[in-house]
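Hi everyone, sorry if this is the wrong subforum. Our group has a chain we'd like a structural model of before ordering constructs, and none of us has done structure prediction before. Sequence below.
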Amino acid sequence: MKNRWIALYVENQVGVLAKVSGLFSGKSYNLQSLTVGTTEDATVSRMTICVTSDDITFEQIKKQLNRMVEVIKVIDLTNVPIHMKEILFAKVKDLSSSQIDEVFRIAQVFSVEVADIGEDSVMLECKLTERRNNELIELLHTKFRNIEIVRGGAVAIEAISTSCR
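Answer:
Right subforum, don't worry. Here is the predicted structure as tokens:
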């Protein structure tokens, strides 16, 4: 069992997301992440999906997705060079002034934006890889006690060069 990535081009219509997610829930596939957005063509959306599965199940998933009328194209991103980012907001609350300074230093090290600041709170906006976001969360948890995390799913696109993942 490992994480596998699929990009789907689908018709941008009401109910398509429900049909795709219904396929996963109906077959009891373990859906890790799903993001959806329109493409340069307003009639087409692109879904980025992460599923945890074995090889046989993953092949079944791809075949079932290809059979859906609303699916235009299925791309297996698992073993191709891609650029992938995940959005994350981290709200660090109940801070002293020295702790606020520490959050700013952490933001600088991780190259993330300070999206908002209050009297005793700082909000970070992160567009990092899933692994790097996990590292940031772990660090924040070790240093501060009151943290709120909101994560979006990852988006990915095939690389132009072959030197990335």
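For your construct planning: The chain has four helices and eight strands. The two ends are 20 Å apart (CA to CA).
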